[in-house]
Amino acid sequence: MTPNVPSIPAPRSLAISVLENNMIKSHGEFDCDDVSWAYSFDPNSPNKDLGDWKKMPLEINSKGELRAHDSAVIVPNVQQCIVGTFPGHLILKLGITTQKVLYFRLPSYKVYSDLLACLMSWQNLKPKGLISKWNFSRSIVYDKHLQANDVLICRFKVYGPLPSNKKVAVDSRLPKMSSYPIDSESDVEEGWFTAIGHLMPNGILTLLCETDGSAIYSINVASLFSSEVRKVHSSVVQTNNVLFVGVINELRVLHGVSDDFMSNGSFLIPPKGANSSETKRLSSASRVLLDFDLCIDLEDWYVALKSVTALEYVGNTLYEKKLRLVRNVNLEILEATFEDDTICKEHPNIYCELVMWGAPWFKTSVVKASEISNCFWKESLNLSLPCGSDYFKILLKTSKSADYYDVEGVNKDGIVGECFITPNFFESDQFLTKVRFSIPKATSLVN
Description:
Elements lengths: L15 H11 L3 E9 L15 E7 L5 E2 L5 E3 L6 E4 L5 E5 L5 E5 L3 H15 L10 E4 L14 E10 L8 E2 L18 E10 L4 E5 L6 E6 L8 E4 L1 H4 L4 E5 L2 H7 L12 E2 L6 H8 L3 E5 L3 H13 L3 E4 L12 E12 L3 H5 L2 E8 L2 E5 L3 E2 L6 E11 L6 E7 L15 E8 L1 H5 L5 E5 L4 E5 L1
Antiparallel strand pairs: 1-2, 1-7, 2-3, 3-4, 5-6, 6-7, 8-18, 9-11, 9-17, 10-11, 11-12, 12-13, 13-16, 14-15, 15-17, 19-23, 19-27, 20-21, 20-22, 20-24, 24-25, 26-27
């Protein structure tokens, strides 16, 4: 026998004023002792009312928790939930993720409208924490009402895929970079070469050959987020005035966006007339480094490039006012002491490397490890961290040389130990914090 399920009018007939009143009246809370739930529901099935429905008392509290009346928490938070309705049925679909979906059958139209209003209230809210409220707006180059910066032209060195058919001045004195290298199986060769940079108002940075002015390839800066244009510390590149311009996948995964968000096109664009092999060759690269001769050029281009990227902010897309948050952190690496003296004997040259988002961003100087004294650095670094970047690690590494890193090749220096820096590290009131390295046993004082 088919249960006597009351019918309701189509969702369009639900008066907006009624929902608004219920949303205000409920304060986002719901309570009912007679609710049926199921993991699936097909409105087109002839046995749709005979599904595997289970009764339970349902509650949504002021924290956004969906509970079975003070017992088990079914859903820890219903913020940003997806709500679905079925015309002619007192059934609501609650989607938490693409994998977690629940269906609720309500006993009356009033309870149905109360739960719908409650879920709609939470649907427009985000979970606790700044990172959950992170958002972005597309580059100003896509806004017809705004105007990007004027055209900029500058001569600089570029680290990226070497041009295949252009005569460029390749500088072999500068080191190869370990930050987001191209796949080792790729036949693309990277290196430093000199080019003329031409930044257009549309956010495209075209690299021109010095000899004949022809296009080498272009960089789609408008396809990047503002946090993906960064200054690089001189300890990493062995030179000053270097900018990182490229995709940082770890940051995009953190915020749940794809590499090519909003269909803004490829990062590196081949010149007109390039064949398919050249397009494929450039598609394997996700970043370039720009080395400027003067600090003033670095600062000008840093501002100009960030101005055509996607703006990151914290807040709601419905409001014009947007809050941009940057976490400025000063990290000082003071010294390291070893419980095992054999480490000093086996690894006489020691330095620290700061790793964020899968790449090194700072290195201390190489110091001598001694059995009778600590490794002493007292080197500080100012970090400008985007929203959500609270975790990174410090590697304790050994060098074959007392003066240089990676003398045997990129990332060839051995790792003596590592430690992770977590958010509670910066919340501590202590001036110095001792952090224990793992494998082998080592201890470092980090400020």
